[in-house]
Structures are given as C-alpha cells and as structure tokens.
Design a protein that fits this description.
Blueprint lengths: L17 E5 L6 H18 L3 E4 L18 H15 L3 E4 L3 H8 L4 E4 L7 H9 L3 E5 L9 H9 L6 E5 L15 H5 L5 E4 L5 E2 L8 E2 L4 H10 L4 E7 L13 E2 L3 H16 L2
Parallel strand pairs: 1-2, 1-10, 2-3, 3-4, 4-5, 5-6, 6-7, 7-10, 10-11
Antiparallel strand pairs: 8-9
Length: 272
Amino acid sequence: MQLNLIPKIKHTNSNNFFLLAGPCAIESEEMAMQIAEKILKITDTLEIPFIFKGSFKKANRSRIDSFTGIGDEKALKILRKVSETFDVPTVTDIHEVSDAAMAAEYVDVLQIPAFLVRQTDLVVAAAETGKVVNLKKGQFMSPESMKHAVTKVTDCNNQQVLITDRGTMFGYQDMIVDFRGIPTMKQYAPVVLDVTHSLQQPNQSAGVTGGRPEMISTIARAGIATGADGIFIETHFDPANAKSDGANMLDLSLLEKLLTDLVAIRKTINHL
C-alpha cells in the first residue's frame, strides 16, 4: 500500500508513523470539529500524516440500551464536513455489506471491525469500493492468519490495505498485545497498532467495557519501538462523559505530549 495515495493526506515524506485518531463515535458536529481541529494542529506541527477517525454507527454494544449513533447519514455527513473543512482524510468502520457503498460516498478509508474480519462478504464489499481497507485483527486470530484477510482484499484488485492490531484476548476480561505480531503482519501489509482498544477490558459484569488508559503511553511507545507503521488512538476532550468507549480513550489534552514522545522514538529507530 502507498500512503500517499490516500486523498488529502499530508506529511508523507516526513518518515514518520501515520496516525488514525478521533473519537470512538460521532456524537455531534461540534464535538467532531473540535477534536479534529486539535489533532490537526498537533500533527501539522509534528509532521505526522493524519487520518481522522469516527464511527458513524456502533453495532457491537454490550447492552441493547448502549449508544449506537446519531443516525447513519447524519454522522457520515459530519465526517465529510470534517474532511472538507480541515482537508484531511477520514476513516469509519462498517458492519454490514450494505454499509460499504454507503460509507464510501463520504470517507476515504473503510475499516473492518476485529470481530467481523473473517466475514468474507463484508471484506469483499469494502475492497470493491476501491477505498483503502483497514482490517482490524480479530481478538481471536493469530498474526499469521491475517495474511488471508489481506488476500481477500488484494484478490479484488485493491492493493490499498492496512492491518490494525488491537490486542488478543487470552482471558475473559482483558486484552494483551503480542508485539511479535507487528513484524509478522508487516510481511502482508502496513501495520497499525490500535493503542486504545488494546487496553479495553471487555465483558465486564456491568455490561460496560472497562479500560486502562494509564497504559496508553506504554503500549504506544512499544508499538513504535517494534516497528509499527501507524498508530490508532481514540481520543476525546471529556472521556468520562463520552458516549462510547470512554473508559479506554485518551484525554485530548494528553495527545500532544504522547505524539511528541512517539516522534522522538521514531527518529531514534530510523537512525539505528
């Protein structure tokens, strides 16, 4: 995959990692614009290629009364406005075959959720839009098995594919990142480390997913040190009151310091 083929992406010659970042879900136009503007200012200063992330719909909820979205078209239009206002590419996740063509009208990258990455029809539908496809590694899958998910995309004559590791579930209520998977999966496609989802604590008895955001810096630093091409971070200016995944999101006020540290690590790695 060639990063510079993603529409509107900047700083592709900086030799930096790239960043997929934004809120878990689109809650309103105001929140999306506020978060996008802040991230863009930071990434422009640090010369980090940036793709704004926001889910237009949340289908994998623990409880039926959990927040799922503000309306598909309304959220997708907000993603388009973010892209047009700040001249940045956008990514959103899809859950059904019919979502692929619909979302492709609004965003630049289609993301396949980890728990759906073995769904051939969904992966093929995303690939056939011609958009970049970001495949989340299933929490239940080995790094080696992601080769076949990538092949489903490339067999559709779409070479624009990414793999994102978001941890592996070895127990009932926690995620573990096996950093050996990064060089393994880089044999198949550029690899992104989803830092915040790797720190989820799902399947809590209360029906609300927990998390360990205090470990975000640790996981992110290790990801850059072990060769991740990109970093995925969900961030919000008020995680405690976010409508989805607040327990493992990074407070937006902490993002600049984290990215500055990661850029320094990346520069060190590049000179080894």
